[in-house]
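retry 2 of 3: previous attempt timed out while embedding iron/sulfur cluster. Reduced batch size to 1 and resubmitted. Inputs unchanged:
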Amino acid sequence: MLSSFELFKVGLGPSSSHTTGPMKAALRFTRYLADQTRGQKVTKLDVRLYGSLALTGGGHHTDRAIMLGLCGQKPQDTEPEEADALIERIASTKTLSLGGQIPIKFDPETDIRFEGETSLPFHTNAMRFSAFDGQGDMIASRIYYSIGGGFVVDEDEAGRNARDVSNGPPKHVYANAKELLAAADKAGLSIAQLMLENECVTRSRADVLAGLDGIWGHMQACMEHGLHREGLLPGALRVRRRAPALYTKLKVQNPDPKVSCERSDWVNLWAMAVNEENASGGRVVTAPTNGAAGVLPAVINYYLHFVGGADAAGVRTFLLTAAAIGGLYKRNASISGAEVGCQGEVGVACSMAAGALAAVLGGTNAQIENAAEIGMEHNLGMTCDPVGGLVQIPCIERNAFGAAMAIQAARLALLGDGKHSISLDEVIKTMRETGRDMSTKYKETAQGGLAVNIVEC
Ligand code: SF4
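retry 2 succeeded.
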């Protein structure tokens, strides 16, 4: 079972697989290095990025993330401004503080190499870290894979298929949606209640509830920043942030979203505010990834603003249900755009939000499963083709569409009785196979689709 607190992680934008994951990998390498070298002096580091990490790593700030991790920074604790200052210092002094303690010469231009023509077999998001002593002899080397949503495995864990890093044995065991529904039915629980009981195996109930409130708090803070920060997003595309102007316009037209006729305008706004903040390198909660981080917060805000009786308990139910659904994709398919295209990011977020909204609107477990299935069914085949390798076009608007589709999917499922032709497990399997068959051009490499038809200026 994947915990809500593993799926929803606070980190820096713009990408969970290309920013948060590499930062965690670099941090892990510093610890591995300290363990392996035991006093041997490291004088040089060499970092190689492969596959999708190399091809879109520039636009996704992978090199920055690597340097931050090597300096001992953790994604959940690093403030964006602090990160900017550290990177500037490394660039100007050509020195990096390894693990936050040992100064070492480091030139980002030559010590981080992007080798996009090489792919390692386990996963396209691969990176190798090597350390050398004063004689130029290699004293440690390690490969890590960023497998989506900020999850990282090293070369040993990859061999052991350590994709799910569980916090402990769950109370209710399930491997797919069918088993989840059966377990919930047997225990007489909703999906959220079952998920809560599983979370309480390793934490107190009070801690779990406070943790869920904290996740929503971080999501709100991110959205709030996005609503107010104006200007251009980083990168050659010079994309202007649209959320602040849209927010002003909507407030003038209708100051209270609760009585707004144009609910979809607000949902668009909330999703885009989060993803513009993500694109700028701000603090974001993976849901299930950074690139798809706007869908869930926008649909939660839809619930809070437009559904009578909505409350904080409902938000917890929403997050727990969404996490249960997201965990099924993580376990049985992928949440990595580099592995299965955008169906694994915005598609999965749409499915999670659809099921979760159905839950807080009073849906049965069968209707929740139906909503999650609809949410993915119409995202099957969606490619990942970020223009300029930046998480901006089509990513920002795509989150707005993911949120809108999630609301439609939930409403459609609630009109039925939960009986339907295609199961969630079947659509997850289809998504996995579609991703496997998809050309690598459309899997976060910026080598196909919009990425090659839009000219960077
Ligand atoms: S197109 Fe989708 S999967 Fe690709 S970077 Fe954008 S949000 Fe992520």
